[in-house]
Amino acid sequence: MTAHDTPRPGREFRLGQDLTINRLGFGAMRLARGGLYGPARDRAEGMAVLHRAVELGVNHIDTAWFYRAGDVAANDLIREALSPYPENLVIATKVGPLLGPNGFPEGQSDAAGLRQLVEQNLTSLGLDRLDLVYLRIGGRSEASGESVGERFEALAGLREEGLIRHLGVSNIDRAQLAEARAIAPVAAVQNHFHVHRQQDPGLLADCEAAEIAFAPFFPLGGGTNPLDVTRLEPVAKRHEATVPQVALAYLLARSPVMLAIGGTGSVEHLGENMGASRVDLTADDMAELEAQG
Fold first, then answer.
1. pLDDT tens across 212-231, in order?
2. Which domain covers residue 47, as residue numbers?
3. How far apart are CA 227 and CA 97, in angstroms?
4. Which residues pair with 222 in a beta bridge?
5. Residue 86 C-beta-side C-alpha neighbours within 13 Å
6. Residue 84: which residues within 8 A CB-CB, separation 6 or more?
C-alpha cells in the first residue's frame, strides 16, 4: 500500500471500540458467484482478488459461510488466500440463514442451531474466534419486526464462551436493534442502504448516537433496488471518477459510522472500488446525489 492509498483522517472506525478498521472494506459475496444465481467463479481469480484487497489496505472483510456456489466458497478462499491472517485483519460473518436443497439460503435457524452455524464459520475460516458475527434476520425480505431476543441471547452466550468477539445484527429495524442492545452490546448493523435507498434514517441515527458501525449490504445497488446511474454520472464526471466510486464515496461522507463494503470477484473492479477513498464529495455534491429525481 502506497502513501497515496493510506486511509486519511476520518476514513477509519473503531469497531466495538477496540478494532481499528479502514471504513472502505471488502464484501466477499461475489467471490463464489457473480450474482445471486450465477455460476461458480474461478477459484484462482477469487484468491487473487483477496491478495490484492489486502495489498490495497483492506483490513475489514465481510463474508458468510453460505456465500458459496458448487465447490467454491468465500470462507474457504479467504482462509486459503490469507491465512495466517495479517494481525490487523478483521473478518465479519453472519449467521441465521439456512441453505436449502437448491444451494441457496432458505429459512432461518432457531436459537439452538446457531452454535453449529458459528462453528461452520470458525472451521471454514480457520479461526478460534470470530471478530464480528451478525445475526441475520429474515431472508431477502425487508425487516419483519419479529423478535430477535432468543437468537441474540444464544449468540451472546457464544460470545461469553469466547467464540465471538463482537456481535452485530442485520436486516433489522430500530425496535429490533433496541431489543438486541438490551441483551448484549451491538458493535455493528448491516442493512440494505445506498445513496438512493434510505428508508430508515432513524436507524442510522441510532447507530451514530451509540457509535455502532453501519455497514450497508448492496452498497452499489442490487436486487430490486438498483442505483439510478443517471443521477450519479454528473458528480462522477466532475470528480473524474466512476459511478461505483461515487456511490461508495457517498456512503463514507454520509456518516462517520458508515462502512462501505463493496464486493466483487474481479481484480480490476476491486481497484476501481478502492479508488473511492480518493473521492472527496462536497456539500453540493451530497445534496445533488440525495435530491429526488
1. 999 999 999 876 678 899 99
2. 21-225+257-269
3. 26
4. 225
5. 18
6. none
Q: 219: domain CATH number?
A: 3.20.20.100
pLDDT band at 140 (very low <50, low <70, confident <90, very high): low
Q: Tell me if 16 is assigned to some domain.
A: no
Q: Which three cell numbers stand for residue 250?
A: 457517498
Q: Is 217 exposed, middle or buried (0-12, 13-18, 19+ CB in 10 A)?
A: buried
91, three cell numbers: 473478518
Q: Given a cut of 60, is residue 143 above it in pLDDT? A: yes
Residue 250 is a catalytic residue: no
CB-CB contact of 208 with 257 (8 Å):
yes
The rounded distance, in Å, linking the Cα atoms of 286 and 81 is 37
| DSSP secondary structure code for residue 76 in this structure | H
202 phi/psi in degrees, rounded to 5: -65, -35
- End-to-end, the C-alpha distance of the chain in Å comes to 39
Count up the domains in the chain and report the number. Answer: 1
CA distance 97 to 140: 10
Residue 12 lies in a domain: no
pTM of the predicted model as reported, rounded to 2 decimal places: 0.94
Residues 6 or more apart from 87 whose CB is under 8 A from it? none
Whether residue 134 is contained in a domain is answered as yes
Pick the catalytic residue: 37, 67, 85, 134?
A: 67
* E-strand stretches of the chain: 12-15, 19-22, 26-27, 60-62, 68-69, 72-73, 90-95, 97-99, 105-108, 130-136, 164-170, 188-190, 213-214
User: Burial of 30 by CB count in 10 Å (0-12 exposed, 13-18 middle, 19+ buried)?
Assistant: buried
